[in-house]
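Appendix B, record 7
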Amino acid sequence: MRNFIARRLLYAVPTLIGISIITFAIARLSPGDPIRLFTFGIQDFTQDDYNRLLHAYGLDKPLPFQYVDWITNALRGKFGDSLIYHRDAFVMLLERLPNTLQLASAALLLQLVIGVPLGVIAALRRGSWVDGLIRVFGVAGHAIPAFWLGLVLIIIFATAGSFGPKRWTCSRRTSSGPPTRKVSASGPWCSCTRSATP
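Structure tokens (predicted):
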């Protein structure tokens, strides 16, 4: 078991490095100049000012050096300032963390409560019409886009019906909605449970 966990952790290192490289490349090579975006609307902005900001943010370095600076600052929790709100990005991330954890916990609970029991029932009634119906639900859970199903369930249960609160936390700094969009994720849990149950 220890060897298995150690191998998994070892495999995760190049995976995370690859993801970080792809993320950096997408952000850095996307159209638009971050300095121009940051200084949009400022009058009397000269080329010398542009060059100073370019040097201050390290954008005049080659891309490999920019990546090293970016990943180092990310590991140290230094995400820089938001170009839109002009505030520390890490502080803004912490402000939104409670609502994110609340939504993720409720979504995981829904997945477990719905997916695991259905998977066990499908395994116990293997080959029956109940098994077929649950398998259709599992495939649909894989196929249906979560954002679309979430909007439909919000309309049914929170807006048109009387199930659940009609108002959810929503403000400029933090926002979250009902975890109904994660109901479709019960499908994979259902399929995995059915396959794992002898």
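Remarks on this record: Residues 102 and 176 are 9 Å apart (CA to CA). Residues 92-196 form one domain.
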